[in-house]
UniProtKB/TrEMBL annotation:
This is Pentatricopeptide repeat-containing protein At3g16010-like. It comes from the Eukaryota. Pfam families: PPR. Belongs to the PPR family. P subfamily. The keyword Repeat applies. Keywords: Repeat. InterPro entries: PPR_rpt (IPR002885), TPR-like_helical_dom_sf (IPR011990). NCBIfam families: PPR (TIGR00756).
Length: 223
């Protein structure tokens, strides 16, 4: 039979389920730094220098992992933004692509992409946009995908190469948005992209698959 002393110890070790005790406490800046700090203190003193290193360097990979841990733990919102701001981790195109490729909810990726675009001394390029567009296509968020493609075509700071334009046309074609694909093609052609034969082939193939043979003839005469 359990004596009084034993019962007392058992009761003290029991886990409380009171609501106010189950809530997660908000971390202070110091606690956030400790959560995501690197084991090597000498390296953590100069985090900016690591971004000058090769992608294969383990210290570069460590910074990627810290970002990924933050995004996976906090999803997205004030806590994630605070953690990233406190740690002062540098945002570059390679890092943005890495975050977009991890297994998190698509809404988290969208919000992170928008947050990154507002960082000082950073602008999205065609590689980060295309990574997000592929994520949106995979999630079948075609409306958001088209809006993002429109942003790419209209953004004067983003270079749309013929190969990028081909990928945009193909993505919209797979989404059965043929009219919008043609609109994007001519917008890019009229503003900052000179289509190659490969780009034209992407448009023609899309039109043929949709049975729009008259349009095929129109596009073919432009080549």
């Amino acid at each position: 039979m359990m004596n009084i002393s034993a019962r007392s110890k058992f009761q003290k070790r029991s886990i409380s389920t009171l609501p106010h005790l189950c809530q997660r406490f908000k971390q202070t800046e110091k606690e956030i730094v400790q959560m995501f700090s690197e084991p090597n203190h000498e390296e953590s003193e100069k985090p900016q220098e690591k971004w000058k290193l090769s992608r294969k360097d383990p210290s570069v990979k460590m910074l990627d992992e810290r970002f990924i841990r933050i995004v996976k733990i906090f999803k997205w919102g004030p806590d994630a933004e605070k953690a990233l701001d406190v740690l002062k981790l540098k945002v570059d195109h390679r890092l943005v692509r890495s975050i977009l490729e991890i297994d998190v909810e698509i809404n988290v990726k969208i919000q992170f992409f928008k947050w990154a675009g507002k960082r000082r001394n950073f602008q999205h390029d065609s590689s980060t946009y295309m990574t997000l567009i592929r994520c949106l296509e995979e999630a079948r968020l075609y409306g958001e995908m088209y809006r993002t493609i429109q942003e790419v075509v209209r953004n004067t700071y983003v270079s749309v190469s013929p190969s990028v334009l081909s990928e945009l046309v193909k993505a919209l074609g797979r989404a059965k948005m043929v009219g919008k694909a043609l609109s994007v093609f001519y917008q890019a052609k009229g503003r900052k992209c000179k289509p190659t034969s490969s780009t034209y082939n992407s448009v023609i193939l899309m039109l043929m698959q949709e049975g729009q043979h008259e349009k095929v003839h129109e596009v073919y005469t432009e080549i």
